[in-house]
Amino acid sequence: MKVNSLQELYVDELKDLYDAENQIIKALPKMIDAASSEELQNALTEHLEVTREQAKRIEQIFQNMGEKLKAEKCKGMEGVIKEGAEILSEDMDENVKDAAIISAAQRVEHYEMAGYGTVRTWANLLGESEAEELLQETLDEEKEADEKLNQLAEQINVQAEAGADEEEPEVRPSSQQRRPKKSSSRSRRAA
Ligand SMILES: [Fe+2]
Known about the structure:
By secondary structure, the protein is mainly α.
C-alpha cells in the first residue's frame, strides 16, 4: 500500500513502536529472571513498569487521533530481542551474563530512542502537540533507562572481567560479589 503522507508514515511508525513495546513487555521478565545482580534486576523491573505506561501512551495517542490501533510487527525489535534471548540461554558466569544482559538491554533502548526521536519530531511537524509531549516523555524515559544501564555496567563489566582472569580461590560473601559497594571491585583490583 502506498504511503502518501508523513501523517500516514507517522501512524505506521507508531503502530510499529506499539508492537515493539509489547515485545519488550514479554521479554523483560525473562531478562530479570536471568540476571544475578539485584541492582540490575531492580532496574529492569522498574523499566518493565515504565514500558507498560509507554504502551498506554501510544494507545492514548491513537484514541486522541480517533484512529484504530493495530500493532504492526516490529521486525527490528524482534531481531534485537531474539539475539538477547540467545544470550540468556547460554551457559555463562553470572557476572559475564549480567554484562551480556546489559548489552542486550541497551540495544533495545537505543532502537527505541531512534524510533521515538523520529515520531516525536514528526508529531511536532504535524502539529500533534499533545502526542509530541507524550512521545518526548517516553523518549526521556528510554534515555534515563540507558543511562542507568551505563551506570550499572561500570561495576558489572569490571566484575565480569575480574571473574574471567582471576582464578584465585578467594571466597567472597556472595552478596558482596553481587552487590559490591561503589567501586569496591576497582579498588580491589587496584590494591
Ligand atoms: Fe519503551
